[in-house]
Amino acid sequence: MKLVSYFCTASALALTTVPAFAQEQSTGQTAAGQTAAGQTATGQAAAGQAPTTDPTDAQDIIVTANRTESLLSKTPVAISAITGDGLRAAGITNPTALADQVPNISIDRNSGGVQVTIRGVTSTDVSERGDPSAAFLADGVYIARPQAQEVSFFDVARVEVLRGPQGTLYGRNTTAGLINVISNRPTFDRFGGSVDVGYGNYDACQASAAVNLPVSQNLAFRVAGNFDQRDTFTRFGPQVTGRSDPFRKNLSGRVSGLYKWNSGNLLLRGDYSDIGGHVFDLLPIRNFYADTPTGIDPIRLKRSRRAYMTENANIGWDLYRRNYSWGIGGELTQDVGPITVSYVGSYRRFKRDEEDARISPDAALAYHYSYDGHYRQQSHELRLATNGGGPLTLQGGGYFFKEDSDIVLKGLIGTANPGRTGDGTTLAFFQDPTKAKSYAFFGQGTYALTDSLRFTAGARYSHDDKSRVGYTVTCASFFTCARPANAVPNNNASATFAKTTWRLGLDYDLTPTTLLYGTVSTGYKAGGFNDGCERGTGTGCTLTADALYYDPETLTSYEAGIKTRFLDNAVRLDASAFHYDYNNLQLS
C-alpha cells in the first residue's frame, strides 16, 4: 500500500507572553542553579566542547536533535523544545499533556499505554509484538513498551520533540518522529535543591524534589523523586462497585552520579517508578451520539459534561494498575585527540499487572480483562564524532537493542461478569517468549560550503529479528484459565527485516536571525506478524505467509522550512512544508 500526504505547519511565539515554551526561555536553570545547556541527545556534553552562541541568541536554548549541540534557532530540523522551567510554568507533569503546548502532536492513552501521534502519523498496536511510529526516549534511551512511558515528569532539563523521520541518527520506529525527555545532570558548582508542590481539582497532587550534591571538583551526585496522583474524570454509576480512584498514583525516584576528568566524563543513572492507580478510560459511545442506522451520519447528543462522562456498566471488580519499571544506565565520553568517543548503555525491566474492563455495545454489560507481563530490554550505542574546528564535522557508530517478554492476557468474552466469580467463556493469550533484536551502523557528516551554507548527508543500516511463541486458548472460567500443557503453540512466527535509511539536507543563514533549510530523508519501521502460525509449520497452522506476516513500513520525506526572529527577537516564527511518501503503511 502506498500513501502520499501533504501537510504544512507554522508556529509563531511571542516570547514576552507565552512563558511555557522553551523558545522564550534562556538555557534554563536547574534546581542547583546550573544551566541545562551543554547536553547531548543522551544528556551528556562532549568533553572539552562548548556550543558557540552570540548575543542575539540570548533567548535561545541548546538542543541536541542532530546528536550534537546547537542552538534551537540554528538547528535545521522541525523541532520543539521545552525546558524544565517551561514544563512547570505550563503545568505539564506527564507525556499526555505535551500536546497542549507542542504543535502537530497528539498523545493519547491506548490499552494502558501511551500512543504518540506526530503530524497525523501513529500506530495503534501497543502489544508486545508491535512497534510505535514515534519513538519515546528517556535520556537518549529508547523505551520500547508504551505502558512504561507514562511516567511523570520530574527534575527534567528539557523535552525535545522532533517531527518527521529520524531514521539516520535515531534508527527504527521513528517514521513519525520522536520525543526525548532529558533529565538534569549532577553539577559541580554547589550544593542545592528544589521542591515543587501543586494541588488541583480531582484531588490532583504533584510533588517533586531534587538535591544536587557536589562531593569534589570531579564528583557529584543528584537525587530526585516525584509523587503524582489524580482521581478519575469519569463519573461512575451505582452498578460500578469496584474501586476506581485514584485514577493515577505514581511514585518515582532517580539517582545519578557524574565523575569527570580532563578529557572525559562518566555518568551513571538508576531509576525506579511505581506506576499505579485505578485506570479506566472507556466511555460508551451512546453517551455522545444517538443510535442511527448504518449509512447515516450519527447525531451528536447535547448533554451536560456530567452525562458525557458517566459510566454505569456492571463492573464488580477493582480496576487497577500495579505496574513498575526500573533501569540502570551509563554514559561514557572520552576525547581521543580530534575524536570524541561516547558510549550509552542501558538495561531496563518493566512489570505489568492490570485489571481492566471492556464494555458491551449497548453499554449495559462489562467484561473482565487482565494483563500480566514481564518485559526486559537492553541497548548499547557506541558513537565517534569529530570535536575540532574546520568546515567538516562527522559522526558515526553502531547500535544494538534487544527485548524479550512473556505475557498473559485474559478476557471474559462469553458472559458479562457482574461479580467476581469469573465464570464464562474466556479468551486467553499466553505468549512466552516474544523477542526483538536489532543492530545498526550509521554515519552522518556536515560540510560548510561557505560561512552561511551547509550540506549534510547521512545513512544508516538497520537489521531486525523478531519472533514469538505462544498460545491463544479458550477456557470455561476466567480465573482458572491456564496455559495448556504439552500443547503445540498456535502463535509461532519469526521474521528478519533490514533496511538502509538516508538523509540529505541543506541549510542557509539568510540573515543572522533567519535560517532556511531543506531535507530529503527516509524512515523505517520493521515488519512483523499477526496471531497464528504458517501453514505446514505445525499442527493446526493454517495461515499463508501473506496472511501471517506484514512488510516493513517505509517513508520518504521532502521538507523545507524557515526559522526566523523579528521585532527585536520578541517574536519567533517557525514554519515548514513537507510531503510524505509512504509505502506499506502499517494499520491496525
TrEMBL record:
Pfam families: Plug (PF07715), TonB_dep_Rec_b-barrel (PF00593). Residues 32-56 are annotated as: Disordered. Its main location: membrane. One of its GO terms (cellular component) is cell outer membrane. Keywords: Cell outer membrane, Ion transport, Iron, Iron transport, Membrane, Receptor, Signal, TonB box, Transmembrane, Transmembrane beta strand, Transport. Residues 306-587 form the TonB-dependent receptor-like beta-barrel domain. It is a multi-pass membrane protein. Residues 73-177 form the TonB-dependent receptor plug domain. It comes from the Bacteria. It is found in: Cell outer membrane. GO terms for biological process: iron ion transport. Residues 1-22 form the signal peptide. Coiled coil: none annotated. Belongs to the TonB-dependent receptor family. This is TonB-dependent receptor. It comes from Sphingomonas ginsenosidivorax.
